[in-house]
Amino acid sequence: MPREQRVLRVLHESQVRIEWSSDRVMTVHLEGYDISLTVRPGVSTVMEFKAFASGRFSVHAHEGQARGGSSTHAHGRSALLRLEVHPQ
């Protein structure tokens, strides 16, 4: 994703929908909201939630699956995306 598109700005209480795709199995984790989902190659995966908390939150990738086993954390790399939730 181009650097200029790595910040998603939304208003507080908005319904947010982020569509993910990947060329390998990974878990995408939204910090602060504690939402994780597994993204598989060739499958579009949607993360949907209500923006209930204001602030700036990072989305990180973890290689492997979210449940039923360990995954390799990729927090040493930069965030995939930053979510900014602004007051209305």
Radius of gyration: 13 Å
Which oligomeric form is depicted?
single chain
Written as H for each helix and E for each strand, in order along the chain, the element string is EEEEEEEE
Helix vs. strand class: mainly beta
Number of helices: 0
Q: Helical content, roughly? A: under 10%
Largest sheet: 6 strands, mixed
Strand content: over 45%
What is the global morphology?
Answer: globular
Arithmetic mean pLDDT: 85
Distance between the termini: 28 Å
How many strands?
8
Kindly describe this structure.
The protein has 88 residues and is an all-beta fold. It is 0% helix and 50% strand. Strands 1, 3, 4, 6, 7 and 8 form a six-stranded mixed β-sheet that branches. A two-stranded antiparallel sheet has the order 2-5. β6 and β7 form a beta hairpin. The protein is globular and about 35 Å long. The protein starts with 6 loop residues before the first strand and ends with a strand. The model is unreliable at 68-74 (pLDDT under 50).
